Amino acid sequence: MMQNITLQDQTYEKLRDLIIKTELYPGQKISESSLMELLEVGRTPIRESLKQLKKQGLVYTFPQSGTYVSKIDMEQAIHSRFVRECVEKEVMVELSANMNKKAETRLQAILDEQKVEFEKGNISGYHDLDNEFHRTCYEIVGKGQIWSWIKEFSVHLDRFRWLHLKNITFDYNQILEEHKDILAAIKARKTEEVKYLVVNHIHFMVKSQTNIIDKYPEFFLEETVQPLNEADDAIL
């Protein structure tokens, strides 16, 4: 059944995307009127979208000052990464057991598109296809709802992922190469290799956390920035 996408849904998704991709940057003051002009929509969808974004911790209102884009909460990002690692390993193993030609063709088409976006230098499109690859894996094994849940509570992880992609991995196409390796292991039904590759793929932030935070210190909640865990680092 097709899901009806309302104007408010579209507005929320656009604002969420602007925040994740730092077009509305951490700490930036925003207003209903400025967002109405930016997205060319009325006050009601903007207001309702801001309510949703506040629940997700992406914006907050400071009394007698205004509404601001929240800073990135690294504690929340690390928790989200842990949950996603645990869930996605099992999703990919299940996919390996149920892979067929139709599913393989569907996933390969996404990787082909991602290669095109890389060659065009389109970081935003490349990022969106990264999400599309993972979402499709969940959908193939009948767990699309779980992906939706993960998406909702992984907003701070996604914000960090964007900075990581923009500043570290896009130049040498790491994400697509890792997707290719994961798909190859899934097709070969090498379950232990699948688990290892998935954890390594999602564990990217351990490698780049210090560099990203040092480059954008004003984007992060200072009290949530923790030293690297040596046990985490040993995995890589």
What does this molecule look like?
The C terminus is likely disordered. By secondary structure, this protein is mainly α. The protein has 12 helices and 3 strands. Helix 5 runs antiparallel to helix 6. It has a 3-stranded antiparallel beta sheet. It starts with 6 loop residues before the first helix and ends with a helix.
Can you give the mean pLDDT? 90
Overall helicity: over 70%
The major β-sheet equals: 3 strands, antiparallel
Query: Which class do the helix and strand fractions yield?
Result: mainly alpha
Return the string of H and E elements.
Answer: HEHHEEHHHHHHHHH
Task: Give the overall silhouette.
Answer: globular
Rg over C-alpha atoms, rounded to the nearest angstrom? 19 Å
> How far do the termini sit from each other?
42 Å
Q: Low-confidence stretches at least 5 residues in length (pLDDT < 50)?
A: 230-236
**How many H/I helical runs?**
12
- List the strand order in the largest sheet: 1-3-2
**How many DSSP E strands?**
3
Strand-residue fraction? under 5%
